[in-house]
């Protein structure tokens, strides 16, 4: 017999040990299964005994028993109503009266929440928040607040919407709109002494507002006067009424108590008698209406992101920008037009910098055309868009400052600059100009003012010409020429020609003479249109100024819907405002803080008093109400700040 090797013996021994271990595991499993069966049988027997005991003993026991979800409950305690089976999601299903009652309760709560007004900021409003860094902040204008006040009372019937910067849902559910204006106190005062304004700090929104003093105006005037509008979504009943009754808007200014002539501008404008005569004269021979009607208004320039010489912005956002003139003449129907276009290349900073400027005059002749050497190295010529290449820029020495000086010297003081999306060109030039016509605004094929139509499309549709098709890229002279032709074409047609937003097309239509932002009506009258009542309280002569902008010939206290009150002290104004806060739909209180009250000795007490005024106003108004406190800004210490808080019921 052959002997078994030692390795084989080891393998056999390992197999025996494994088999023995498997037998032991099998025996243990059988033992566990037998024990489990015994336990289950005992549990079933115990359950049967308990059920039999409950059936033979109907009397409730005072002893607490375990229920299925492991909580203790006394049989004497009725507890919550029983619920039904679990639904597909695993949650209990409610049935019967309890379910109907719960649905009704939730429905009523939802309806109450939905019926409450809601105020929220849009992007432009968020950009004005004082929580943002100074360099990123873009302040609002007083006209933005004016639009919100009107919308809070007459909603979509308002001539202007606040949708640019905020949204107010369920405006008609507001009980009051309360506004406290504190003149001569600025954002700087608030920021430097924030701890002294605990009540103002509780307001939901804190937004920077450009002080009217920065553009040579005042708060009462800016807040009270609403420029007449010619938008089709707001039927021109006002202008048509005035034109039909008085012949022209100029006549309405002198004969009506409701129309005002207002010319405000942040640019230094010198108006001579000669300019006034030209302004009242006939339009240019080739024009069917005054070219001044195509000028962008102040709020449009803000909307289109034009650089403006406003105190606060000049030191931050527009540092290094210059005016096209030190002193401007008044724009007239015969003011000359110049079409401008710029080309840019990308430089080592990652930004676009100016590389070419072209200007065309009304005779379609090149007025100015030059290449510009950027301050930084060009890393991308963007030839397919700019038409600029390295060969063209090889010997260029003219810098941006040279171009600025050339344009300042060559342009007339009343020049009207024409162009497509002109704000981009002015930012490239780092220049500011008051009189602009933007072809991307006066022409529109989309029907939506925020969706611009390209210059190439406008030229093809209205001029039957083709531009920007060269493989060498765009040409600034060609683009500026197209802008001039488009503007001249519109002047031969009508204000509405080529503008789908205003209801115009390619046809010529007859329209009544339309107004510009030079003419205005009363904001308070707008608020009182839908049977709303307005109350204004002002210190000293301020109430009389508000009254003037309601009715130029007013001598009484108001007409019932609009009332005025004057007080000799700021505290008297605040008391009157709080007393009337629950009686009128719009309540305005206007106080003025003297420079003496802002000196080092009195400053702390002054700020404490102002903060207490806001608390009094908030406590005295009804719910829901939109409460606004405006620190109007200071001539020397910068812009104002607007605090907003929607006071409404908390629904549990």
UniProtKB/TrEMBL annotation:
Residues 47-94 are annotated as: Disordered. It is found in: Nucleus. The keyword Nucleus applies. GO terms for cellular component: nucleus. Its main location: nucleus. Residues 336-496 form the Exonuclease domain. GO terms for molecular function: exonuclease activity; nucleic acid binding. InterPro entries: REX1-like_exo (IPR034922), REXO1/3/4-like (IPR047021), Ribonucl_H (IPR013520), RNaseH-like_sf (IPR012337), RNaseH_sf (IPR036397). Pfam families: RNase_T. Keywords: Exonuclease, Hydrolase, Nuclease, Nucleus. Residues 47-59 have a biased composition (Polar residues). Coiled coil: none annotated. Belongs to the REXO1/REXO3 family. This is Exonuclease domain-containing protein.
